[in-house]
Structures are given as structure tokens and as C-alpha cells.
Amino acid sequence: MTDRPLKVLIAKPGLDGHDRGAKVLARGLRDEGFEVVYTGLRQTPDMIVTAALQEDVDVVGMSILSGAHMTLVPRVLDLLRARGMGDVLVTVGGIIPDDDVEQLRVAGVAGVFGPGTTIREVADFIRANATPREA
User: Fold this and answer.
1) Distance between CA 14 and CA 32 in Å, rounded?
2) Cα distance between the two ends of the chain
3) Residue 98: how many CB atoms within 10 A of its CB?
4) Does 2 map to a domain?
């Protein structure tokens, strides 16, 4: 067991250019005691997974407003597994239609958060579900 705080990567995959929510979440999670890495806009799945690997994160949170979640998220999950990071908790937030939530969960997403979710709700979910990666 490690004494370090859980490390969360917040990513904006695809061509979505709106990142205010991701920045608010990153700052809020930092204030909740997490170590947070924000990748910035227009990240490819490979860029997200490479950053997750380099930063040795416990959680990958993707913020998606573009509607490309059913393409981008499964690709990130596949790449995480291929690179030995299948134990990383993956969450998705943004505009996710209710009909897609179950498919994302089946693919391996642990939590899906829509508009109106509080920072505390996300933080509590991460604390309850993330497992610190071994060094």
C-alpha cells in the first residue's frame, strides 16, 4: 500500500474544444486531495494512454462533449489493457446519452458523470473505487 494520493489524469479526447468543465474538475479534485494531471485539448486515445503510462496514474477521467464517446472511449480502454494498465479506473463525463451509458460500462468504464454532477460526487466515487497502482 502506498501513502501517496490517488493520481488522476483528466483528458479531453477528440476534437472537442470546450474544456472549462475539465479544468474545473481538475482543480476541484486537486482541492479534494488528489494529484491531478490535465492533458489539454484534442488528445488522441494513444496520447491519453501514453500520458497515463508515463504519469503512472490510478484513474483516467475523460471529458467528452462532442458525441464521439462510443468511438474514443473503447479505444482508450483497449490501449490501456494492451499496455498493462487494465486495472486503472476509467471514468467518463460530459454529454453522454442514457442509451450509451450501459454500453460504456460493459466496455469497462467504471463511472459515467453527466452535467450537474458535483466535484464531491466524483471525488467520493474515485475514493470508493480506485485502487492505487503499485510502484
Assistant:
1) 27
2) 9
3) 8
4) no
CA 55 to chain centre: 13
Q: How many domains, the chain?
A: 1
Distance CA 118, CA 49 (A): 26
What range defines the domain where residue 59 resides? 7-129
> Domain with 34 in it: what CATH number?
3.40.50.280
Q: Could you give the angle at the alpha carbon of 40 between the alpha carbons of 61 and 9, nearest 5°?
A: 30
Reported confidence tier of residue 1, pLDDT bands at 50, 70, 90 = very low
Residue 135 lies in a domain: no
106 is written with which cell numbers?
460493459
If we measure between CA atoms, which residue out of 93, 85, 105 comes closest to residue 26? 93
- Residue at 109 is within a domain: yes
H-helix segments, 1-135: 20-31, 45-55, 69-82, 98-107, 119-129
- Taking only the tens place, the pLDDT of each residue in 13-45 is 988 888 899 999 999 999 999 999 999 999 999
102 inside domain: yes
